[in-house]
Amino acid sequence: MREAFAHVGGVLATGLAEVTSDPAALDSRGWWAVVVTYEGKVTCARFEDVRRAPHPVEPWVPPGEWTTSLDEAAYVAGVERIRAEIGEGVVYQANLCRILEAPSRGDIAGLGARLVKGNPAPYAMTLRVPGMEIACASPELYLARSGDRVESRPIKGTARTEDELLPKDEAENVMIVDLVRNDLGRVAAVGSVEVPGLCLVERHPGLVHLVSTVRARLRAGEGWPGLLAATFPPGSVTGAPKSSALTLLNELEPVPRGPYCGAIGWVDADSRRGALAVGIRTFWAEDGLLRFGTGAGITWGSDPHREWRETELKAARLLEVASGDGGAGQGLGQRGAPGP
User: Fold this and answer.
1) What percentage of the chain exceeds 90 in pLDDT?
2) What's the distance, CA 327 to chain centroid?
3) CA gap 142, 236 in Å, rounded
4) Alpha-carbon distance 153 to 210, whole Å?
């Protein structure tokens, strides 16, 4: 395997020193790259040489034909199932996802460099360590920490333009903000949880999002293990109530999400600072395949076919960057069968 590295926020980390699955390491010493899969597998990689530097440039070979774990018919049926469960009061909202995959032909560093150029994102990160290769272009902040101050910026509501956002999008955002407030409240000092920004429009390549900000101050003695335990998986990619949504989504989604919808980012234990993105707009390579996830938040007001189109919208630009093909992201076939 080529040299391990992490690149995030204009910082290049090399000189891999250790890898651990214990999040308590993030409160110890050194600079860490962090990945937590949606299923809860933790990877913390400490690097010794951390400096400002451009993203490594390596050749990239576009992947083969993309397939999807849920085709349009299956996804629409899943949306209808969620709406039925909302009608029964089981959930209020749930984020239904599908996983795309294609034969992998290139190195993740090459893909990461393409994303930096073709789809810049505030929480972009490329990571290559033994057993894990990720290229992330996430626009969403899961957790930022500076000392005892923490912040989350959940995204709910996606459209091509601001005019295409619906009342459903704002209602969904407010529901998730309540969930994030509750999660942070489990480890926050009493009275410290606040919402300084609610349902603000952010523009990203090819689409717009509704974004809110939730802030809090950690209780004395709390650190990364408690913070992750209280808030993971991120509420914006699960649903409300979270426990019921997780149970329902486990029934509806046929394959694991892996790093998609997990946490991806960095922690500087020496300065007690860090930022973890929600692992959306994320590629990962394993078992000779390149994978990518996309999904949509489902509420009672959801139109099933519109939600399918939202998953296509979210995927289209990223797959175009990865494939060098203006048609990427459209007409994706069912898992195991080539797309038309």
Assistant:
1) 88
2) 24
3) 9
4) 10
Residue 75 belongs to some domain of the structure:
yes
Burial 132-158, CB ≥16 within 10 A → b, else e: bbbbbbbbbbbbbbeebebbbbbbbbb
Which tokens go with 192?
């410290």
Is 335 within a domain? no
Between CA 308 and CA 188 the distance in angstroms is: 37
Q: What is the CATH number of the domain that holds 9?
A: 3.60.120.10
Amino acid letter for position 276:
L
Residue entry with tokens 């486990």: 250
Catalytic residue set: 140, 156
Number of domains in the chain: 1
**Percent of the chain whose pLDDT exceeds 70:** 95
Which residue pairs from 244-248 have beta carbons closer than 8 angstroms and sit at least 24 positions apart in sequence?
Answer: 244/90, 244/91, 245/91, 245/93, 245/94, 245/95, 248/81, 248/82, 248/85, 248/90, 248/91, 248/94
Task: Supply the Cα-derived Rg of the chain in whole angstroms.
Answer: 19
How confident is residue 311, by pLDDT bands cut at 50, 70 and 90?
Answer: very high
Residue 327 lies in a domain: no
> How far, rounded to the nearest angstrom, does the alpha carbon of residue 240 sit from its chain's CA centroid?
17
Side chain identity at residue 240, one-letter code: A
Which residues have a Cβ under 8 Å from the Cβ of 182 and sit 6 or more positions away? none
User: Which of 148, 216, 141 has the alpha carbon at shortest distance from 184?
Assistant: 216
Q: For residues 146 and 234, give the distance between their C-alpha atoms in angstroms, rounded to a whole number.
A: 19
d(CA 179, CA 245): 12
